[in-house]
């Protein structure tokens, strides 16, 4: 059984069953002028932890693993029930687990992440291949919206929604995706420390050793969006040991945070690194004009979009499709998101303004797990848990 077959089956199940568009009248309105779209009470709900990069890798995530000991296994539970739903009693999940055990034991997980994963597994008390598998599942499904913007007061801002969990079991009772809901409960912010100082901040899920969004203190901000193409072929090659010297994008994000000291160094690193997945890196800096979207395949840059490059003025917005490609008709967050940014305007760019854009149902979906808004200029890094109250698109 190949991973592609599984993915295809999941897609078929997700599209054929229970998922309905929101009932009329559904109005995906932009909420930038709606005062109720912002609530101070939403601040600070995502907890902060420290990860000390000078500690041995095996120990770095122990505090997080301890706190989330009981919440990490349910994530695996959702993955397992999804596989069972498709394949019934056939031992497919055990087989997939076996592939990951072989990959882990075969040394295909790079240092220091392999030891970090072992450290988490030891604290949670589950087999290491399960944490190893979770780390890779995160790599495969993240549909998101990211924005880099300049404001009228000459500040740089960067914001993103993380959409996750479509194709992973729709719960008709509460009209939500089980995986998205489970992931909301394990969302964490991390201060990565080095030499006793805060080097960078990142947001991720407990149990995962990569980051999805991050800010190198005083220098640059980064988020990554998936590209709407299948990475399963390369994943299979990696699992079977045929693909060596590759990188997972979420670990690339940590590497760039640790090793690049400026926006330009980060841009060079993200343009050249060899990696497994196709993706979009959205990179922002501290100076006006430092904003770019690097469109990547496994080996090189396919295209790059920049602030003020003729097509783009004061902001860049990226979902999961190349600029020349039409989004899936069920998933046009781009048109609505752009309209909402224009309504916000350069004057409105701020923590609250960008949050409201991402809180609008033009970009918010049932799969949205969290929102992060960052600014090097203002030293802002805020993560928010998201919900999309009915009526809302399932994906
Ligand atoms: C950072 O760079 C150093 C020196 O080039 C390298 O040894 C190290 O592996 C890099 N760290 C990461 C996390 O990529
Ligand atoms: C990646 O993109 C480059 C530049 O467009 C292209 O030359 C190369 O063939 C692509 N590689 C893959 C694996 O698609
Ligand atoms: C309504 C919403 O949740 N936002 C987007 C999600 O997907 C629908 C259709 O898939 C888009 O039209 C929305 O822009």
From TrEMBL:
GO cellular component, one term: lysosome
Entry superkingdom: Eukaryota
Pfam families referenced in this protein's UniProt entry, alphabetically: CBAH, NAAA-beta
Domain Choloylglycine hydrolase/NAAA C-terminal: from-to ranges: 144-311
Classification via InterPro entries: Acid_ceramidase-like (IPR016699), Acid_ceramidase_N (IPR029130), CBAH/NAAA_C (IPR029132)
Gene3D superfamilies: Penicillin V Acylase, Chain A
Signal peptide: 1-16
Domain Acid ceramidase N-terminal positions: 44-97
GO molecular function: fatty acid amide hydrolase activity; N-acylsphingosine amidohydrolase activity
GO biological process, one term: fatty acid metabolic process
Active-site residue numbers: 144 (nucleophile)
Record's keyword annotation contains Hydrolase: yes
Protein's recorded name: Ceramidase
């Amino acid at each position: 059984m190949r991973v592609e077959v599984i993915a295809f089956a999941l897609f078929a199940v997700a599209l054929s069953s229970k998922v309905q568009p929101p009932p009329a009248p559904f109005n995906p309105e932009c909420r930038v002028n709606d005062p109720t779209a912002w609530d101070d009470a939403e601040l600070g709900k995502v907890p902060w932890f420290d990860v000390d990069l000078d500690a041995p890798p095996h120990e770095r995530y122990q505090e997080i693993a301890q706190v989330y000991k009981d919440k990490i296994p349910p994530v695996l539970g959702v993955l397992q029930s999804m596989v069972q739903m498709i394949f019934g009693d056939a031992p497919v999940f055990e087989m997939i687990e076996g592939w990951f055990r072989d990959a882990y034991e075969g040394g295909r997980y790079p240092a220091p992440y392999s030891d970090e994963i072992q450290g988490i597994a030891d604290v949670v008390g589950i087999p290491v291949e399960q944490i190893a598998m979770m780390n890779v599942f995160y790599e495969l499904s993240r549909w998101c919206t990211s924005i880099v913007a300049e404001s009228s007061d000459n500040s740089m801002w960067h914001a993103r929604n993380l959409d996750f969990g479509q194709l992973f079991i729709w719960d008709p009772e509460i009209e939500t995706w089980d995986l998205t809901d489970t992931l909301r409960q394990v969302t964490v912010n991390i201060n990565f420390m080095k030499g006793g100082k805060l080097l960078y901040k990142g947001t991720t899920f407990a149990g995962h050793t990569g980051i999805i969004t991050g800010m190198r203190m005083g220098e640059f901000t980064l988020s990554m969006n998936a590209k709407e193409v299948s990475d399963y072929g390369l994943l299979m090659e990696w699992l079977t040991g045929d693909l060596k010297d590759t990188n997972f994008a979420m670990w690339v994000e940590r590497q760039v945070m640790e090793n690049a000291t400026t926006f330009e160094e980060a841009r060079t690193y993200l343009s050249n690194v060899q990696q497994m997945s196709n993706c979009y890196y959205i990179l922002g800096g501290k100076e006006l004009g430092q904003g770019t979207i690097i469109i990547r395949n496994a080996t090189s840059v396919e295209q790059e979009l920049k602030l003020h490059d003729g097509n783009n003025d004061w902001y860049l917005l990226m979902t999961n499709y190349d600029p020349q490609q039409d989004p899936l008709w069920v998933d046009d967050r781009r048109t609505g998101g752009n309209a909402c940014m224009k309504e916000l305007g350069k004057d409105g760019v701020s923590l609250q303004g960008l949050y409201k854009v991402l809180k609008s149902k033009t970009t918010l979906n049932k799969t949205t797990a969290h929102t992060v808004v960052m600014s090097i200029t203002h030293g802002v890094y805020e993560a928010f848990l998201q919900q999309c109250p009915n009526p809302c698109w399932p994906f």
